[in-house]
């Protein structure tokens, strides 16, 4: 029987399609542990409240022992009250004919409000994962709007890109995806991201070799591999007429579970974090995806990996996009 006190976890965009795949995994203990009771708070906008009622009914009907309570709400003061973890999935989607700037403006407004609510109502130890796009910049805005919560408590999702990269290499080598480790997603969760396998290892028939030696096709690794990962989200939308949801939910679980329980010894994963103090020459005031190790709920960037010219150019290009996005967002934030 689970004995721990329940933790409070909010998921925003809880009536949406990612949440529909995500909530079950959280509620059954895949993220915070099999003996950790949970109070799930589902936040969405007022028109979605009837849909949330349906989601609540389904969660109840799953009869999950760890799930102590489900609270649907459209109010941030209810949604963020005393929470231990926040998974911010809800954001303004791009609509037909909408300019990039207008989309950013709408999302700055959402993540400013939610950041302020975190600041006011959440526990100061809350771990905040931003998923809603543009995830890196939304995360930066939320953090800047929550000055009483440590910057290190904020991160954004690039684990889906990381998992995509692992899987592409694994399929190419004919091994299962758990045989591939230490791929890196650098930068923005956008098509400028840089999936890098220069430091990745593949376990082939029991011995660990570099990804380049395992794949034996440098042209593919420097070409189609990178563009496949960069454009995978668009490929899924084209095929499914909906954006990635099952795989996004799985990646969210991987990301948050690693924050809670740490990464495996000798392995690193990718997540978007504050660039302050990084050793890779990335501008400081950005949420940028790095190779990360986590211990005792504290992450650190894996420093000192050698970077060649090919990688340098791609890391700088994605940083430049983030700087531009940040500057536009900061203009909106100050308005
Ligand atoms: N970082 C990543 O790897 C990654 C991967 C996949 C999708 N995404 C992004 O995740 C987001 C959600 O995707 P989805 O497929 O679930 O979308 P969806 O449209 O199915 O659901 C989004 C939900 O968010 C809600 N919402 C909008 N504004 C809100 C607000 N202010 N507060 C609370 N809820 C709000 C909507 O009402 C809707 O129910 C999108 O921005 C998508 O681009 C990110």
TrEMBL record:
It comes from the Eukaryota. PROSITE patterns: MDH (PS00068). InterPro entries: L-lactate/malate_DH, Lactate/malate_DH_C, Lactate/malate_DH_N, Lactate_DH/Glyco_Ohase_4_C, Malate_DH_AS, Malate_DH_NAD-dep_euk, Malate_DH_type2, NAD(P)-bd_dom_sf. NCBIfam families: MalateDH-SF1, MDH_euk_cyt, PRK05442.1. It is an enzyme of class 1 (oxidoreductase). Residues 8-154 form the Lactate/malate dehydrogenase N-terminal domain. Gene3D superfamilies: Lactate dehydrogenase/glycoside hydrolase, family 4, C-terminal, NAD(P)-binding Rossmann-like Domain. One of its GO terms (molecular function) is L-malate dehydrogenase (NAD+) activity. Catalyzes the reduction of aromatic alpha-keto acids in the presence of NADH. Plays essential roles in the malate-aspartate shuttle and the tricarboxylic acid cycle, important in mitochondrial NADH supply for oxidative phosphorylation. Catalyzes the reduction of 2-oxoglutarate to 2-hydroxyglutarate, leading to elevated reactive oxygen species (ROS). It catalyses: (S)-2-hydroxyglutarate + NAD(+) = 2-oxoglutarate + NADH + H(+); (S)-malate + NAD(+) = oxaloacetate + NADH + H(+). NAD(+) binds at residues 44, 107, 131-133. Keywords: NAD, Oxidoreductase, Tricarboxylic acid cycle. Belongs to the LDH/MDH superfamily. MDH type 2 family. Substrate binds at residues 94, 100, 133, 164. The keyword NAD applies. This is Malate dehydrogenase. Residues 158-332 form the Lactate/malate dehydrogenase C-terminal domain. The lineage of its organism: Eukaryota, Metazoa, Chordata, Craniata, Vertebrata. Its EC number is 1.1.1.37. One of its GO terms (biological process) is tricarboxylic acid cycle. The gene is MDH1. The active site is at 189 (proton acceptor).
């Amino acid at each position: 029987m689970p004995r721990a006190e329940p933790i409070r976890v909010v998921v925003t965009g809880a009536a949406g399609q990612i949440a529909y795949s995500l909530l079950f995994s959280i509620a059954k203990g895949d993220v915070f542990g099999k003996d950790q009771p949970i109070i799930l708070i589902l936040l969405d906008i007022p028109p979605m409240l009837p849909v949330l009622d349906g989601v609540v009914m389904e969660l109840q009907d799953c009869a999950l022992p760890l799930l102590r309570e489900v609270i649907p709400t459209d109010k941030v003061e209810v949604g963020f009250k005393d929470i231990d973890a926040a998974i911010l999935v809800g954001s303004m989607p791009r609509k037909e004919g909408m300019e990039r700037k207008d989309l950013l403006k709408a999302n700055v407004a959402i993540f400013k409000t939610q950041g302020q609510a975190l600041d006011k109502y959440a526990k100061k130890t809350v771990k905040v994962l931003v998923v809603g796009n543009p995830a890196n910049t939304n995360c930066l805005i939320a953090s800047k709007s929550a000055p009483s919560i440590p910057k290190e408590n904020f991160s954004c999702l690039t684990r889906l890109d990381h998992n995509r990269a692992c899987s592409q290499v694994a399929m190419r080598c004919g091994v299962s995806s758990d045989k591939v480790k230490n791929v890196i997603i650098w930068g923005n969760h956008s098509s400028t991201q840089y999936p890098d396998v220069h430091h990745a290892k593949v376990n082939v028939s029991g011995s660990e070799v570099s990804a380049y030696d395992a794949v034996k096709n440098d042209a593919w690794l420097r070409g189609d591999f990178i563009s496949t990962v960069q454009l995978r989200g668009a490929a899924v939308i084209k095929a499914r007429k909906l954006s990635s949801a099952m795989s996004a939910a799985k990646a969210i679980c991987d990301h948050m579970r690693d924050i809670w329980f740490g990464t495996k010894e000798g392995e690193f994963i990718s997540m978007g974090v504050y660039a302050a103090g990084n050793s890779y020459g990335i501008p400081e005031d950005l949420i940028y995806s790095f190779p990360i190790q986590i211990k005792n709920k504290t992450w650190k960037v894996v420093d000192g990996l050698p970077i060649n010219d090919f990688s340098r150019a791609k890391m700088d290009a994605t940083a430049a996009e983030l700087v531009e996005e940040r500057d536009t967002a900061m203009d909106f934030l100050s308005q």
